[in-house]
Write a structure and sequence with these properties.
Elements (H helix, E strand, L loop, with lengths): L2 E5 L9 H10 L4 E5 L4 H4 L6 H14 L3 E6 L12 H21 L3 E5 L10 H20 L3 E5 L9 H10 L5 E4 L2 H6 L5 H7 L7 E3 L25 H11 L4 E4 L9 H18 L7
Parallel strand pairs: 1-2, 1-8, 2-3, 3-4, 4-5, 5-6, 7-8
Helix pairs in contact: 1-3, 4-5, 8-9, 9-10
Amino acid sequence: MVKIGINEKSLPFELSWFDKLNCAKSCGYSFIELSIDETEDRISRLDWTKGQRLSLVEDVITTGVPIDTMMLSALRKFPLGSANAEIYDKSYEICQKAIILAKDLGIRNIQIAGYDEYYAAKSLLTRENFIENLRRVVNFASENQVMIAIETMDDKFINSIAKIREIKQEISSPWLQAYPDLGNISAWPENIPSLDLAEGLENIVSVHVKDTLSVTSTSPGKFKNVPFGEGDVEFFGLFKTLKRIGYSGTLTVEMWSEKNDNAVDLMIKAHTFVTELLSKAGLNIEN
């Protein structure tokens, strides 16, 4: 049985939280993934008051639509592996606040980007800093019973579940797992996506569903804003892989349509695209 949710950036930006939750439900989705991105507006959510947190929890209970996961993409701006000591500490502080926010809102799973560094240069130091800082984050998360899940990225640093498993050899904890992105693992020519999923099953706590264009000798690929069915991801085959290996959990549809006038139509279209292929692959969908 799989449960289909949608990331917040797919939903019309102007909606209140109550309306976002109802919108997701009306489009067929079972949960929303909260976005804490690089913008000051969304980073400020980490400092929501008790009243603001309680209001969102009440909306969740009233609508019956949970916020099961959080996407902490603010770590692109404040990467865990930064060689800058202030940014290094800021990234840990952001993660601490995100873990407490998740605990307060009932979010079970924080997805962090698998970047040691994003805007600045990578080095041996940024890799070591990433592992060192991530260990601090995982320790704090375990104290609060919140899962930290590394996403496979549009970056070679961590672009497969296999690489996440290598990180787990350095940080042995049940509170550190993998959040593979089907589009990202499919885009890299060195990956065999079905094998990566099968070998990494025991570490998968959620799956992102998006389309991408592959990296080739003449193209850097395209990792965002590729309409479903117009990219190179073999969704039917990957869904059959998930069925074969016995994956049972959440699938999060990922788009960046929140500023589009037709955001709701895109949400419905994506839900239809994904559910038809899931059903064809034999995966049961939780309503």
